């Protein structure tokens, strides 16, 4: 193994260690999150960590087999985040104080 290949292997191994550590911390946040929004955001970040782990595995094996899987996971993570954001936006929407029809009584 040449020098650059050794450096590649060491850097990819370090990346895998960081991905595993961040995944463990995210699992802790998902289980102990103080609110549902914290848990939802942690699940979204966990999807990104899984994508990063697949990218590291793909780089380590020098194989592009996982790229379509990473693309699908990214799409699912994005749609999940948008769905959660819309749910939170509807839930936190302030109630209108006016009468139905938009006309207020000014007496």
UniProtKB/TrEMBL annotation:
Keywords: Cell membrane, Membrane, Transmembrane, Transmembrane helix, Transport. InterPro entries: MrpF/PhaF-like (IPR007208). Pfam families: MrpF_PhaF. It comes from the Bacteria. The keyword Lyase does not apply. It is a multi-pass membrane protein. The chain crosses the membrane at residues 6-28, 40-60, 66-89. It is found in: Cell membrane. Its main location: membrane. The keyword Iron does not apply. Belongs to the CPA3 antiporters (TC 2.A.63) subunit F family. This is Monovalent cation/H+ antiporter complex subunit F.
């Amino acid at each position: 193994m040449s020098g650059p290949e050794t450096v590649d292997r060491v850097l990819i191994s370090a990346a895998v260690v960081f991905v595993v550590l961040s995944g463990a911390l995210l699992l802790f946040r998902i289980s102990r999150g103080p609110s549902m929004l914290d848990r939802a955001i942690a699940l979204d970040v966990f999807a990104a960590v899984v994508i990063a782990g697949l990218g590291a595995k793909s780089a380590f094996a020098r194989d592009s087999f996982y790229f379509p899987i990473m693309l699908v996971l990214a799409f699912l993570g994005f749609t999940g985040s948008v769905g959660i954001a819309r749910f939170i936006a509807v839930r936190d929407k302030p109630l209108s104080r006016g009468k139905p029809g938009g006309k207020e009584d000014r007496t």
